[in-house]
Each structure stands twice: as C-alpha cells, then as structure tokens.
Design brief:
Blueprint lengths: L1 E7 L5 E5 L4 H10 L5 E6 L6 H11 L3 E5 L2 E6 L6 E2 L14 H8 L1 E5 L12 H9 L3 E5 L2 E5 L7 E3 L5 H11 L5 E5 L5 H12 L3 E3 L5 E5 L8 E3 L4 H13 L3 E5 L7 H9 L3 E5 L3 E5 L9 E2 L11 H9 L4 E5 L8 H8 L3 E5 L2 E5 L4 E2 L2 E3 L3 H12 L1 E2 L1 E5 L2 H4 L5 H7 L3 E7 L1 H9 L1
Parallel strand pairs: 2-15, 3-14, 6-7, 10-11, 18-19, 22-24, 23-25
Antiparallel strand pairs: 1-25, 1-26, 3-5, 4-5, 7-9, 8-9, 11-13, 12-13, 15-17, 16-17, 19-21, 20-21
The chain binds uridine-diphosphate-N-acetylglucosamine.
Uridine-diphosphate-N-acetylglucosamine (UD1) binds next to helix 1, helix 4 and helix 5.
Length: 430
C-alpha cells in the first residue's frame, strides 16, 4: 500500500494545538535506559513511528519494552547483548545512540550503522574519536561500528563541531567511566539537557548541561528512573510557521517558548504577533502577508537545520527576497526542487538559497525526502491553489504525531489517501 496526503490550499489555520514529547529526546532517553538494570519509565512519549522502531532496537539487545500510549517502560536485564545489528537499526538515525550506553555498560559494542533521513553526509568520526579518548578501540567492520575497551577512563575531549549525536554517545559512555570526562564544544540543544537531566536522575554526576562544556564524574552504576520527555520544539515551530504562512492564529501548548526564542523572533520580523507563555507555550497571529527575512542554520541556540524547510516555505510566499544559509546538512536543499514544482521562485548556490516570494503557489504532486521536508511541503500545499498531493508521507509519520488530525482540527482540509499500487497499475492499463 502506498499513502499520500491530499492537501487543499487556501485554509487559514486557527485554534489550539498541543505538542507532546520531542522525537530527538525520547529516542536518546530510551537508549539511556540501557545504562541501568531494572525498569525505566518514560512519559509524554510521542506516538510516532520512530518510537516502536527504537523499541525493537532495545529488544534486540535483550530489553523488554512496553509501549502504552504515551508511556514507555523499558526493562533492562543484568545481561545485555553487546550486538545491536538487527534490521531495525537501519531504519532510524537515533539507533546509533545505543553505542555509548553499550560501551559504558559492557565495555564492548557492535552497532550497525544507522539509517534515518537522507539530509547529507552523516559520518560517525566524532563519536568514534570520543570513545577512543575514553580508552576504547573503534573501527567500522562489515557495516557496524565495533568498539571495545579493557577499561574506560575519563578524559578531555574536544569536539570539532557541537554534534548532537556525538555529544550524547560520549556522554552516555562516560557516565560509567572511571574518573572525570570533560567534553568541550559539546552540543547545547534542549534535548541534550533532557538527556543530562534523566542521567542525573539515574545517579550520574554531570555539570554544565546546556553549556559548551560538560563535566562528567564517572560512577559505578546507575539506577532506573521515571522521566517526562520535554516538549518537541521542532514540532512547536512547525505550528508557528503554519500560522505565519496561512495568515492564521495558532496557540501552541506543551513546549517551552524559550527553546524557540530565535524562531519566534524571526516570525516577529516577518510581521507576526507573537505572545509567549512562560514554560508553557506561545501564540502566533499573522494578519498580513509575511515580510521576507533571512535565515542561517546553526547548532543551538542558532536557527535549527530541522526548521530550514519551513524557512524556505515561508519565504516562498513572503513579500520580498530571503537568503537562507544552510550550515549543517547540505543535502537539505533538495527540498527546494519540490518547492519549485509548487511554483516557488527559488534557487541555490552552494549552501545558500535565494527565495523570491510569489503571490501564489499552485498545486502539484510533490515528494517528501525527509520528516521536516515532508511537513514543509504540507504547509506549502496549504498556501497553494488547488489540491497538492504529498507523497512518501511515511517520513512525516516518523516525526509528527496525529499530523493530519491536528491540521484538520485547525481548519485545514487534508486527507490521507491509501492506494493499492497493483490496482493503480491495472486501472492505468485498462
Ligand atoms: C541530530 C538530529 C537531527 C538534527 C541534527 C542537527 C536526532 C535523531 N537527529 O542529528 O534531526 O538535524 O541533530 O541539529 O537527534 N558530523 C560529523 N561527524 C560526526 C557527527 C556529526 O561530521 O561524527 C557532522 C554531520 O555531518 C553534520 C553535523 O556534524 O554536518 C551535525 O550533526 P549532528 O549534530 O551529529 O546530527 P545528528 O545527531 O545526527
């Protein structure tokens, strides 16, 4: 069966929408549960495809995982397997986050190279170098990262770039290393703080969460905990852009607006009226056509690369010309080819894109290449004349819980259409 969305253009989105736990947090928290024998409970989990996929990864190394609505319970046995090379590994990027916990706990790991969004080159050199600094050997063999250590010893580690995944893997290995580890140029994303918070609840000793220097004092063992995932700032921002693009009025709850300070400031510059509710959410009202603004993607607290498709989509219907600079994942500009199908006036030159706003987009069949590009195409379809077909929507399902339902509740007209490919071929032939 193949699925696409029919997105009817022209709706103004109005209403309230609740954001649940962050995809890029929950998957790492699930991996962190490997560090402690017993049952770890994670609440406010989003009901997205990547959560059961990550559950399969954990089961493949010996855990029992129960998914119960927005609660995930992971029971980690005393004897874990060090081999995480099941087919589930290749289906998502975050699967690589079992590497750090397995090395921390077992001093050895064989972890299949991860899958996930095709957004550009995604090497693991910083993950491996970090583990080497802690005293492990690390190589790539037969499609797997193989790491082994007689003992893990705290060390000073400088990252070339504040990589989210490398910070998390090194952190999760170092909490059970001997002595002190200092990770410099660490990533500062709110999801890293969330992982640090849960590890601390489990008994880890970490200082500097949310800063560029993380200091970890290794402990002998961790214990299970119950932890609530932080709200998904990327999903929250998606709704903020949806309000701005459809000249709508959307109140978003369940996400800390401070995690979106820069994003909301950009929308203010575009002409939106933004109100924030401390720690709880925000409201974006856009009454006039958005004005063009420039965007530059950078690690947090910069403008997130995951939001770049929304910046392009907003710019394509704004008044004026925007320059968008992508500094993290070069292949993300593939999204622009799909926007051009919808009538956007956009072109790229290296890691810059120039987008001249047009009065109207027009519907066309388009293809999602990753989670955020897919959601960006849906928002563009809402601003296009006619019915836009967005294909490969499984990408969107990996990151957005109840996306179609939430959009329709806000006043959009969007339908999920399931096609039997064999029937489609037969009809074409007849
Ligand atoms: C995470 C997010 C992803 C987001 C990205 C950047 C998850 C599951 N995914 O991905 O949605 O777009 O952060 O905010 O949390 N790099 C190296 N060597 C390494 C590691 C990374 O060169 O060893 C490079 C990457 O190619 C990329 C940059 O560093 O150019 C950032 O990558 P990183 O922060 O590691 O992204 P992920 O953790 O994979």
């Amino acid at each position: 069966m193949s699925e696409h969305f029919d997105v009817h253009g022209g709706a103004r989105l109005v209403g309230e929408v609740e954001v649940v736990g962050a995809k890029n947090s929950v998957l790492k928290l699930m991996a962190a549960a490997l560090l402690a024998e017993g049952t770890t409970t994670i609440t406010n989990c989003p009901q997205i495809l990547d959560v059961p996929l990550m559950a399969d990864v954990l089961r493949s190394v010996g855990c029992e995982v129960e998914l119960d609505g927005d609660v995930t319970r992971i029971t980690t046995p005393s004897q874990l397997s060090h081999r995480a090379d099941s087919p589930a590994m290749g289906k998502l990027r975050a699967s690589v986050c079992v590497l750090g916990p397995l090395v921390g706990r077992l001093r050895q790991a064989v972890v299949a190279l991860p899958g996930g969004d095709a957004i550009g080159s995604r090497p693991l050199d910083m993950h491996q170098n970090g583990l080497r600094k802690l005293g492990a050997t690390s190589s790539i063999e037969h499609g797997c990262v193989v790491a082994e250590a007689d003992n893990l010893r705290g060390s000073q580690i400088w990252l070339d770039f504040p990589s989210v995944g490398a910070t998390e893997n090194i952190l999760m290995a170092s909490v059970l290393a001997e002595g002190t580890t200092v990770i410099d140029n660490a990533a500062r994303e709110p999801e890293i703080i969330d992982v640090c918070t849960m590890l601390t609840e489990m008994g880890a000793k970490i200082e500097g969460a949310g800063t560029s220097t993380l200091t970890v004092e290794g402990v002998e063992r961790l214990h299970p905990t119950e932890h609530r995932v932080i709200g998904d700032r990327i999903v929250g921002a998606t709704w903020a852009f949806a309000a701005a693009m459809t000249r709508g009025d959307i109140t978003v709850t369940g996400v800390d607006p401070h995690h979106l300070d820069l994003v909301l400031e950009k929308l203010r510059l575009a002409g939106a009226d933004v109100t924030t509710y401390d720690g709880k959410g925000f409201r974006v009202v856009q009454d006039v056509r958005p004005q063009a603004v420039d965007f530059v993607t950078l690690p947090y607290p910069g403008f997130a690369t995951d939001l770049q498709p929304f910046a392009v989509a907003l710019s394509s219907v704004s008044e004026g010309t925007s320059m968008i600079t992508e500094n993290v994942y070069e292949a993300r500009f593939r999204f622009i080819e799909e926007m051009v199908r919808l009538g956007a006036d956009a072109r790229t030159d290296g890691h810059h894109a120039v987008v001249r706003g047009v009065d109207k987009l027009s519907s066309a069949p388009v293809w999602a290449s990753d989670i955020r590009a897919g959601a960006g195409l849906v928002l563009a379809g809402l601003c296009a004349e006619g019915v836009t077909e967005v294909w490969d929507v499984f990408h969107i399902d990996r990151g957005y819980p109840y996306f179609v339902e939430n959009l329709n509740r806000l006043g959009a007209r969007i339908e999920r259409v399931t096609t039997d490919p064999e029937r489609a071929i037969t009809e074409e032939q007849s």
